[in-house]
């Protein structure tokens, strides 16, 4: 399978990053969003993003100019996919929006186009039927700030063609990602299957007054020899997201500890407008959090 023309649907937080990363690595990229206003927003963010590429990846002006020249924009779905080898979907994390999007897409996309969803919490099998081409549909999951945290988890569903799965792994590598094959459908892929229980275990120690957040982090950092503990990670993910996950899990499992975690995150943080790194304060103060100082582990 030869990929040349890539369409990115949805140009929000992740979509515009996927588009830029893909164009940076030499592919023609068509960015599709609902209206001109959303597309203009994405365009304006590319300028800031290119500074990150300059700083973090030592990108040259010529490379960045070429990247911009390879990106086109449209709010017409049929035009966006007319010659697409691959469409990467990054529309909102809402099953109804995604299903409606795939139903519409199925009507206008050429037969050759492979569809990949970047959904973080949903499974490809949920949308396989709506795509009208289940064998050419799978998940390609990126992480926020993809040029630095360049993981690409590739996960099919039961009917995904193995050749499509392999082609997506190769594509991920060709746009500078670390390709990570996931052989079975797994909610949360690999990363969140590890990270969420870990973070909730840390929050549980705090909610049950077993230990203070910084002490929990110190324990983990020193004993395992890593630079971040669970509370530093919560600040990075954002308190809002941590709360949403704890609340959803508490509501679906009736787990009392998760309910307590959610209640505390709300009363101690959300209600006070303290949201982690986005507001400069969470379990730590930014831009110079205590865990980055040499004194922290002494
Ligand atoms: P977002 O809300 O920032 O952006 C969504 C974009 O889709 C918006 O620009 C919106 O105008 C557009 N949109 C809405 N309906 C559309 C439609 N029918 N067709 C085309 N575009 C439409 O969302 P996001 O955070 O970028 O998340 C997008 C996807 O990426 C989700 O599935 C999410 O799970 C996944 N993801 C997000 C992150 C993250 O850190 N934000 C990380 C990994 C994966």
Automatic annotation (TrEMBL):
SUPFAM superfamilies: 6-phosphogluconate dehydrogenase C-terminal domain-like, NAD(P)-binding Rossmann-fold domains
Catalytic activity: a (3S)-3-hydroxyacyl-CoA + NAD(+) = a 3-oxoacyl-CoA + NADH + H(+)
UniProt keyword Chaperone present: no
Alphabetized UniProt keyword annotations: Fatty acid metabolism, Lipid metabolism, Membrane, NAD, Oxidoreductase, Transmembrane, Transmembrane helix
Transmembrane segments: 189-207, 227-246
Single GO MF annotation: (3S)-3-hydroxyacyl-CoA dehydrogenase (NAD+) activity
3-hydroxyacyl-CoA dehydrogenase NAD binding domain span: 5-185
The keyword Translocase appears for this protein: no
Domain of life: Bacteria
UniProt domain 3-hydroxyacyl-CoA dehydrogenase C-terminal: residue ranges: 188-286
One Pfam family this sequence matches: 3HCDH_N
GO aspect biological process, one term: fatty acid beta-oxidation
InterPro entries, sorted: 3-OHacyl-CoA_DH, 3-OHacyl-CoA_DH_NAD-bd, 3HC_DH_C, 6-PGluconate_DH-like_C_sf, 6PGD_dom2, Mito_3-hydroxyacyl-CoA_DH, NAD(P)-bd_dom_sf
Pathway: Lipid metabolism; fatty acid beta-oxidation
Site label Important for catalytic activity, positions: 141
Name the UniProt record assigns to this protein: 3-hydroxybutyryl-CoA dehydrogenase
